[in-house]
Write a structure and sequence with these properties.
Chain lengths: 224, 224
Amino acid sequence: MSVSTANRTSVWTRPERGARGPVPSLGRADITAAAIRIADAGGLAAVSMRAVAVALGTAAPSLYRYVESREDLLDLMVDAAVAELSPAEPTGAWLDDLVAVARLQLGNMRDHPWLPDALQRDLSYGPHTMDFFDRCLWMLEPVDCPTTSKLEAVGLMTGIVTLFARATAPQQPFMVAATPEQHPHLFAALAKAGDAAPRDPFAQAVRSVLTGLLTAASDSDGVG
Amino acid sequence: MSVSTANRTSVWTRPERGARGPVPSLGRADITAAAIRIADAGGLAAVSMRAVAVALGTAAPSLYRYVESREDLLDLMVDAAVAELSPAEPTGAWLDDLVAVARLQLGNMRDHPWLPDALQRDLSYGPHTMDFFDRCLWMLEPVDCPTTSKLEAVGLMTGIVTLFARATAPQQPFMVAATPEQHPHLFAALAKAGDAAPRDPFAQAVRSVLTGLLTAASDSDGVG
DNA sequence: AATTACTGCGAACAGTGTTAGCAGTTTACA
DNA sequence: TGTAAACTGCTAACACTGTTCGCAGTAATT
């Protein structure tokens, strides 16, 4: 018996190779590794089928013997990247455990800056991602709340990590000039920027959201 | 005098048209409107220069008389969409004000499902987006904390809204089958899904993050 | 030995953003 | 007014993308 959320065909359900023809010179692992190397260097946009192919010394159409589409390849990349973060076992302090997981994720996205982009697709989770979710749910065992909420919370946590990963990325958002007449508050804010760095907005945000979502929260709906 | 965060050339600094040639048959507003119409119907990927061009009865290269690149067009689209949300004036209750703003944003992203995608580019903010930031900072005037933190908080709020906008979108994340042996906690969670819907995770998350980031937070690092 | 199923890949297709360059049009300046 | 400068609109084209077709070669099955 097994439980799944959909039955779309994906890389994970398709066998890696048949048993009839000549032995393939590549494997999904090779292709995935090459793609990740390219993405680490040049971003997700640099991962074209042709680029991956030349990195492997073959031609682009050959890749379609191993992968059904570029989307498949991106799914493989995500799962391979998620495999790199190995969260510790639960200690019982679920909030600390999950904040530690979030820190791991942030580091993972620093190692692979393309990861946020790859995550925001309509992706299909692979086995390592499933392991990851399972770990997080294990950590959340002491929490008494519906399991759907726990999954939601883990998903939102991951989302927030991507937000921070993006925000810390090299490029700064661009603004047209702010004038004191049209944008008085923004002008004031930009003029005296750099007052004092907040302590740890990342952990702060993660903790806030997790406690907010997973805690009984008697007076939280306020003005609704 | 003015304050800006960068001096990259962008749509906003370039004049809409010169003063020498024949009067243009289009304007940036027309092109932006057409592009938004296409994106509303078919997503951001459907917004190709050629598609926008035929929607306007012209050829693709003509658009480059009004816009320097597709990125420029996307920047215009974002600013036009942001212009549609007109947040109320501050009431003094900053948290409630901002939660209301977040709700407006969420509605805006429901009207324009491409907005999350367009927002997570390396975009350059236009005048309406500046107005929006200014409004938010105005709401945050009663809060005593560094202005950089306020800007960060508004940015993070917007990010969280995009996460929810995506999560509520039609497509469901896909998972390979979860087995009780390999993923015991995930299996249990998926098996008994649908216990009880949480009350309002959106407002919950927004409130949590905002208070977490903007409040003096005497005991917020808790168990750490 | 024949069949079947596979691999690897050159050629090609439909699509993308973008540029070159040209004819025609309007303004600015002499 | 005449002329030069600056602009518009657009056809053709370039370099790129993901992907499919179909063919030659290879290994396992029957």
